[in-house]
Structure formats: C-alpha cells, structure tokens
Amino acid sequence: MSLQTPLSRRYFLGECGIGLGKIAAASLLTNSLQGRSLAPQAPPIKPKAKAVIHLFMAGAPSQLELFDPKPHLTKLEGSPLPKSIIGDQRYAFIQPDAAVLGPQFEFQQYGETQATLGSPLAPLGAVADDLCIVKSCTTDQFNHAPAQLFLNSGFSQPGRPSLGSWTLYGLGSETDNLPAFVVMSTGGGLSGGSALWSSGFLPTTYTGVQFRKGKDPILNVSTPEGFSSEVQTDTFNLVNKLNAQRLATINDEEIATRMASYEMAARLQSSAPELMDLKTESDETINLYGCDRDKHSFARACLLARRMVQRGVRFINIYHSGWDAHSNVKGSTENNCKQTAQATAALIQDLKRHGLLDETLVVWGGEFGRTPMVETNPALGRKAGRDHHPQAFTTLMAGGGTKPGTYGETDDFGFHITKDKVHVHDLQATILHLLGFDHERLTYHHAGRDFRLTDVHGHVVKNLIS
C-alpha cells in the first residue's frame, strides 16, 4: 500500500491485527446504543438505590398465611364467602361457592413498626423495622406464566425487556469483571422461563446472565480440557478479528454484543471463581445465612448476591419456585419459608452491616396472592390448598430508600383491596424512581413507537419512599 492510499475504517479493522480484540471491546464499552451504553450512566433524578436484589417467590406465596391475618375467615371456615364479595369472579380450580379456609398460622407483631408476620416468617422479625410491607398489591393476570412475565417485564407475553434489563439500559454497568445483571434460581422450574430476564427488543447486551447450579455456574466459561492458554488467546484474537471485520461491514449491534460476551467470558475465568468461593466468609456469616459454602441453595444465592453488590453488579434476580400451594397450603408455606426466611433476613442484616442497605433495594414477593377459599379436589389429590388470587397480594421491600412500615389494607376476607391499591405498574414505577428514573421517560424506540416498562399506566407510590 502506498502512503497516498486513503485509510478507511474497514481497512484499518480488517488488516491491522494489532490489539484488535481490545480495540473492539473498548469500542463496545464506550459506543452508545440509542443514546446509552454499558458505561455507568447518571440517572436524571438523584437515586436512592444503586442496585436491586429481587427475591422472586415464584408460584405465589399466600398472603393470608404470612402477612395479612383475617380472623373473620376463621369464623367463617367451612362456609362460602358472601356472593356480594365474590361477584362474577371465576377461578381455574375452584368454584366461587367453595368453602372458606382460615389462616393456618399464628401471627405476631415485631419491632417499632409493629410489622405483622405469620410464624413461618418469624426470622424476619429481626429486621422488622427495615421492612416496607405493601399489603395492597394487585395484578391483571391470574395464571403463573403471564403473571410472572407481567411483574418482571410489565407485559403478559414474552418479548418485552425485563426490569433488570431496563435498569441496566438506564444505568449501565459498574463492573468490568462480572455481568451487571445476574440471575440465579432455586427450587423447581419457572412458568415464565428465561423470558423473565430477557432484554426483549433491547440489545441483548442487557439480558440477564444466568448462574446455574453445579461446578460451573456460568456456561461456556471454563477452558475445555486440552486447550492451553496460548491456544485460547489465539482463538479469542481470531474470533474477535473476524467479528470486528463483520461489525465494520454491516454495523450490527448484536455483533458488538457477541464480542463483549467473549471478552466478558475471558474475564470471568478469573472473577467468577473468586466470587463463588466462600472460603473467605466467616463462620458467623455462613451461620447467619444458614447455608453451606459449596452447596447450591437459596441461602447461598443470597450470600452471593451480597458479594455481587459489593463488586458492582447492578441487578440480581433470585427465583425461588415451589410456592404454588393448590394443596396443603400449610405444609407448602412451612417448607418454603424454611428455605427462604432466615436467608432473607440475613441478607438484609448483612447488607446493613456492610453499609450497603441504604443504596441496595431488596424486593421479596410473588406474582399474585392466594384465595381465601379452600381448594379441594380428590380427583387431583388436592386438599386444604388455595387457588390463584390476582385481586390482592403482598410484596416486601427493604433498603434502597423505602419507608419502613405497612402500607395498604384489604377487606375482612382478604379478597379486595380497601385502601391504597398498588398495581404492578405502580410498583415498577416506584422501583425505577428509587433508581433515579421517571418511568414515563425511560423509553426505547421500537417498531415505530416508544416503549416503556410500565406501558401506558403506573404512578410512583410516594408514601413507600423515605
């Protein structure tokens, strides 16, 4: 090539192989995607929270056993609810005239806020004065998959960005060595599947990265046997060179996402083992959470979440499924609380003692509530259970600028909300506000119009904010 030959961007990326992978990665981390990037962003409103840990109780815990005691149900047990209460409501597994089932546990009040908790959640009494208990949540969906999608993405069908993806899109990443949006799952499967942490129509840069059970929590990170570090480095360089050439040719942001994934995978080979190794945690901390250093569990996931927040991870989903108590609501609730209650309290305590709770929002709850009527079906082997109830359920929040105390009320039957209704979109709008965003202005242009997490609804519930 002569000195007079013009140097095009395509020629430079295609022929200049020196440091190409690093150049591409640096470009990715600084280039804007529709005005935003993976670099840390300052939100337009002064934020109260910098990170979110969402403890999602998939299957829907019973608010009547855990948060919302109704002595009137005990008096009515065995009789149907008044028709004036039920109206034209229909259910999937019970008839509207099904008999009432009273709360299955004793309740106690804790702390200066007099937080009311069922006995299976007694460990949360230790953090009662940090809890914001929202007893008046309501949703539009009454089946698991659409309701889980609705709470996680603001829409009842797959294809929309999740709350974690919107958070990352708005705030960027504060860590170069770990994914900014991490997903962990305990219990069984999830009705909503991976769409619960999908980036939807946002660039896939903003999709949650699932940490799995077992020796290798992140797929495709460990170096295969028989590959030396030199071979791996050469492979990375070649793949990055080919991807960079293709990116320069067609300028597809998904190629940039792929390149960033390879770079992150390389960094994770050292950062992930350090994160997952709990040997440096004291016996006191391990006992506080009630976990094993090496055994996968909800408690261990909670401890890992605290470690992730310390390392700059922005959004963490921990899904614990198994709460769908169509039969034996008492035994199901006891079992799930044994797995989650101590660890939830420990997470809040641990964040607080590390000085992280004020800037970390912890959210605990499921996709809807459970009926005050009993579900009994001998053909399906069900008895003493509760069906799905979208009209009223409870969500807990702690830290991140929330106001401790109890908000909202339901009627004597736990059926309808009677005070301070909080729709799912209101909850989402409030979370975004705590992160520093106006939910009506955090938008992404797609398919000819601007989309947002809360669709065309929602308002910030200011009384939940300190």
Quickly count the helices. 13
Q: How much of the sequence is in beta strands?
A: 15-25%
The first-to-last residue Cα distance is 66 Å
Count of discrete domains: 1
Mean of all residue-level pLDDT scores: 89
CATH architecture: 3-Layer(aba) Sandwich
Per the CATH scheme, the topology name is Alkaline Phosphatase, subunit A
Kindly name the structural category.
alpha/beta
Q: Which radius of gyration do the C-alpha atoms yield?
A: 24 Å
**CATH class categorisation:** Alpha Beta
Helix content: 25-40%
Number of strands: 17
**Major pleated sheet:** 9 strands, mixed
Question: SSE order in H/E notation?
Answer: HHEHHHEEEHHEEHHHHEHEEEEEEEEHEE
* Basic shape: globular
The unreliable regions are: 1-36
Description:
With 466 residues, the protein is of the alpha/beta class. It has a single domain (45-213, 296-464), classed as Alkaline Phosphatase, subunit A (3-Layer(aba) Sandwich), CATH 3.40.720. The chain contains 13 helices and 17 strands. The strands form five sheets. Strands 1, 4, 5, 6, 7, 8, 11, 12 and 15 form a nine-stranded mixed β-sheet that branches. It is globular.
Could you list some keywords that capture this structure?
9-stranded mixed β-sheet, alpha/beta, globular, 33% helix, 466 residues, Alkaline Phosphatase, subunit A
Q: Topology of this structure?
A:
Elements: H1 9-15, H2 20-30, E1 51-56, H3 63-66, H4 71-76, H5 83-86, E2 107-110, E3 115-118, E4 131-138, H6 144-153, H7 163-171, E5 181-186, E6 209-211, H8 229-250, H9 253-276, H10 283-289, H11 298-310, E7 315-320, H12 329-353, E8 360-365, E9 369-377, E10 382-389, E11 393-398, E12 405-407, E13 409-410, E14 417-419, E15 422-423, H13 424-434, E16 444-446, E17 449-451
Parallel strand pairs: 1-7, 1-8, 4-12, 4-15, 5-6, 5-7
Antiparallel strand pairs: 2-3, 4-11, 8-11, 9-10, 13-14, 16-17
